[in-house]
Amino acid sequence: MAHDEARQLEVVHRPGDPLAPPLHIQVGDEVAITLYGSAAYGWTSVEVVTGPLAVIAAETTDGTVRATVRAVGVGEAELRSASSFRGDRFGPQTRLWRLLVHVEPA
């Protein structure tokens, strides 16, 4: 089966949401990620920890992070971001968001 068009998938995470299950995509596909935060409890930029993904766009507004990644090869990848309370360095614990991505041939 040919993969004629790259797909764009969307991943949204709000405070209190469970982590998403692993995502299965194909080379060339893009994933638009939105991690909702607040001015007091904001996310760091989404980063590719390992694997064949490339961040092609990113922005942060009032603690909410948006990023778009593209699958550039075959393999397993991991995306991460962390959210910390900005008002007090001894405040609530840092939260970790991560997403495992399996990239298959197009």
Which CATH C-level class is it? Answer: Mainly Beta
| Strand tally | 9
Tell me the Rg in angstroms: 15 Å
Overall 3D shape = elongated
Beta-strand proportion: over 45%
As a percent range, the share of helical residues equals: under 10%
CATH architecture: Sandwich
The third-level CATH topology is Immunoglobulin-like
Report, as a whole number of angstroms, the end-to-end distance. Answer: 9 Å
Order of helices and strands: EEEEEEEEE
Per DSSP, the total helix count is 0
Question: Explain this structure to me?
Answer:
The protein has 106 residues and is mainly beta. It has a single domain (8-104), classed as Immunoglobulin-like. 0% of the residues lie in helices and 58% in strands. It is built from no helices and 9 strands. The protein has strands spanning 8-13, 23-26, 30-35, 41-43, 47-50, 53-61, 64-71, 75-85, 95-104. The strands form 2 sheets. Strands 2, 4, 5, 8 and 9 form a 5-stranded mixed sheet that branches. A 4-stranded mixed sheet has the order 1-3-7-6, with no helix packed on it. A hairpin with a 2-residue loop joins strand 6 and strand 7 (64-71). The chain is elongated, with a radius of gyration of 15 Å. The model has no long low-confidence stretch (mean pLDDT 90).
Give the SSE layout.
Blueprint: E1 8-13, E2 23-26, E3 30-35, E4 41-43, E5 47-50, E6 53-61, E7 64-71, E8 75-85, E9 95-104
Parallel strand pairs: 1-3, 2-9
Antiparallel strand pairs: 3-7, 4-8, 5-8, 6-7, 8-9
